[in-house]
Batch of 4 targets.
Target 1
Amino acid sequence: MSIKNNSLNVMELAYNAKLLRAHGIFKEAEYPLLLAARAAKMDPAIHYLSVGEQKGVAPSRAFDPTYYVARYPVVGRAGVSPAMHFLFEGKNLSLRATSVAAEYDMPALSGNRPAGLVLATHAPSQSGQDRSVLAGFVRSLATEYDVVVAYAFSTGTTREPEAAQAIVMAPGNLDGSLDRVELDHLARKLLSRYHPKFIVVHDLDAARLIVPLSQSGIPIFSTIQHFPDGAEAGSRAVFQHARASIFAGPEVSNRARILFPMLTSKRTVKIHDHVVAADEELGSRIAERLREELKVAAEDLGHTSQPAGFQDLWQD
């Protein structure tokens, strides 16, 4: 039995379609091109094998052909059907059918306001001050935006900050760091799920996601307030891609400029009166400055071409 779709006759395609259904890889209710298949008067599973798979469309939530080929390039080079390769070979070799991102629980937003994505960390080592600053920051932003807080590399559960409209946590079985393929798919899922109008990096742990997220053209801002030892090695991308960085006071700003020389040519904002009544108030002040930076970005883009994802930000 051949698993190269372009070499199959009608009967072989029908047989392969039957196998995909029997093994739960193809499910009509989850096939995005179901209406197109019906309009073409084709069996939906055959439509997937002959049309959908070539477009990178998934046959169900159980299998992602785009991810499978990216994860295992030899499959793409062989010119075989990713789904059939998984069924006949990949499954026995314990190859992944979907990305790690598919295991993330990403709650839906109930509102219809523009969304903002905040990348943070949630760990036992996180201080109460850090949590309070984040809580004040999110509470202030939540007056205008549906705020999504993503603890993309932290497992467990949390309801903090309470003002967030959605909180994303890593799956409990997350083991080790994610490689480029997994990070790309995680970024893609976050963007397609929430369609954020801006992205905020609130913690250096999120630096790993910056490169794939930056490819969307959605504006990125940094609100990082402390730099642990060894921060420079893995966090350069944050400041390379951030439109502006907001620091609570000159001490933090000066250390950032020493660690990351590229900041000398970037826009930085220092909140000099950073000794305030409460940590949540500091978070609120950072949010106020972010709003100002969003306006500056809108003005900067007023006479230039806007990257993908930027245009609707300024029309909401």
Target 2
Amino acid sequence: MFDFNLEQIIANLYQTIFTGIEFYFPKVVGAFVILLIGTFAAIGAYKFVIYLFKRFKIIELIDKLEIDFSEETQKEANLKTEKKWKEVVQKTPFSAKFSKKIKIDVIVGKSIGYYVFLIFFRYAIVVIGIEEVEQFLADLIAYLPSLFIWFVIGFFGIRFANFVYDVIYHALNLTKQKTAKIIASGAKIVILFFTLMAVLDKIGIATEITNTILTGFIAMLTIAGGLAFGLWGKDIAHEILESFRK
């Protein structure tokens, strides 16, 4: 017969429960306090970033990177219609284009806020003692700065590509605006491609893959350029050279 002692089983069960509570309760309370502090720190970091954007007028500085080509666009409007010759086409600032969809200051502020919260959350996990989750969060926190640099490179790379497109398109005083548009688009694509290469490098894509993509892109441009000027690009080349001569 089995020696079945119900009182002893219940006593052992209560002892296990109270031992677990005694061991984990201080850790849970400590983790909760850390998360509470991290929440306030994240909110403070977010509001501080918003304040910096407003204090130093960073969005306005970014908008000033745009060039106003109202005079040139006026000429283009005159060529299309004589009725609208008094209209001046103004370039829409970047922040005005995307203010309804994204806000740069909010994105940057929330990103930094979440990053600060993740740091506190990791220490809360360390207090509780879950090593696997703590290691994952440590790797994530170490990787996020590279992701932020990727965002900055991509953002300003796109901005610079648009800037170069506008400069080239309006600087080339060609008879056919389509030719200037093709050249400006080509320069923009090249800048966007090298921006993509820099982003892939920061993300950590294998160097062999990026080198292969770069080699293929250069080969494609070489072949496409040779075929274009060899088959139908003589007139474009003549127009460009004639524009430089004048």
Target 3
Amino acid sequence: MQRSKAHLPIKLVGDLMFTVRRCLSLLAGALVASTLVASPPMALAEDGLDEARAKLSKRFPELDVENLKPTPIDGLYEARWGGRVIYVSRTGDHLIQGDLFEIASSRNLTEEARIGARAEAVAKVSEASMIVFGPKNADYTITVFTDIDCGYCRKLHREIDLYNSAGIAVRYLFFPRSGPETESWFKANNVWCADDQNAAMTRAKAGGVVSSPDCGVTPVQTHYRLGEQLGIRGTPAILTEGGQLIPGYVPAAELLTTLQEEAKNSG
């Protein structure tokens, strides 16, 4: 399918995971939990929350310890950093990076948590810092991490009228895959500083040159860091309102079906 053809950025890992790798020896891979095995009631698991929060806040101040949640495994807690989900022990001495599955239902509990984390993180970004194509009363809204020089990002933008006609508003966040202080990064800054940002985005994605005066601080760095926190690994990266991450280019008709199904399931 077309969506698998996302382009990889050079820098993949955010500040937290860099810190974690220096401090702990991570156990990577899938962590499997079964409801067929007896586990303690959630109320008992919550007994260690305050202890875990206190220890983890000292070791990893970047973690959102207030949203620390017990898992079905006694002594293991779910922690978030942006859109990333990791697991930590009550003592804060052990950390697991991987997916937690419930065997009986085949549910990926970690991905369910990621979906909520992504939706919350994007909801905190002001739309005023985005470049939006589409009516305000659109039926659906997607948020797209985009790179001006990405081929499939350009393909998506060439079809922007098809998305809008399908009732889908497209909100762009900048994610230059080459990283800071590169040509793609400078192009993003120039698009943001243009008098007509929408026209500048369209011109840049068509291969045109956009020259703009320096307008001070732009949202490019903020968007880029958010993408890293959410684990974005290529562009375009489409986020639905419900927090679902769809990597790569998706035709408007196919995307509309996905959004309709999401809305139906959430209702």
Target 4
Amino acid sequence: MEIRASSNWRSSLLSDRRRFVAAGLGALCAGATGAAQEVSGLDLSLLDEWLTPNELFFVRDQGAATPAAGAKWSVPVAGLVAKPFDLQPDELEGVTRKKIAATLDCAGQPAGGGLFSTAEWTGVPLSLVLEKAGIEPGARAVRLTGAGGYTRTLPIAKAMHADTLLADRMNGARLPNAHGYPVRAIVPGWYGSDSVKWLQRIEALSEERPSEAGGPQEVNVVFSRPVEGAVLVGRRFLLRGAAWAGERRIQSVEISTDGGIFWAAATLDDAPRPYAWVRWRREWKIPAPGEHTLLARARDDSGRVREAREAWQKARVSAL
């Protein structure tokens, strides 16, 4: 099968492929935890646009009961605050709003990856909500509680960062139920587990809880095309993928087409920025028929390097 560089999000095979990926990942996670979960991964071969459409964005839940769309809600803001209050929906519309593009990356990836996607999130900085409540000087962390009692705790500096949001819109649309409707946290540059969905409580604490935090993302890089096991026809192929670096910026992506002996720079299609991936590409002149091992690695602006050690950073292909 030849994988062409013109593949796009609206492939006629999209629905069937998404169901296949979702079924495989769901079985993997249910087997690992013994609990029912909704899990579906991004089909990386469809990675063309910078923002992932909502219907393709990966989903990973922890088996918690989620609120029905349209249900009434409020979020208590409590703990070490001078003026506890219940956050209401209209308060997300009545204050300064912000848009942040962020790549969410699940810390626990299945063997083939796929639990990463990028969206533009719109909402209110968490810091404004905490300031309204009058956060006390002794507060060192903020705990976020979602549906089913799922909790994550952020250091106070990250909770008060201007880019940490309470989001109610995703790629310009109302936040879908599967992605946390009516409101979720977005903690850009940190693993997706910290961006609590279906937010139900915000609480200022006197100490950090390291066991309740995923922390900053590492540098990561993925192949989108060709896919593992592809059979390529012809002697030229456009290699493509994406790379991100959490709170840092991607500086470079390098590709090896000979199993790691020689490396060459890929072209970055997007301006590097914190929080969100950049797409990369490199034209490959296939030297001869046979088996080839492709590898990708990335470096950020602090010098951190992600070597090709995961399945999604490699592609073994055959050329005819």
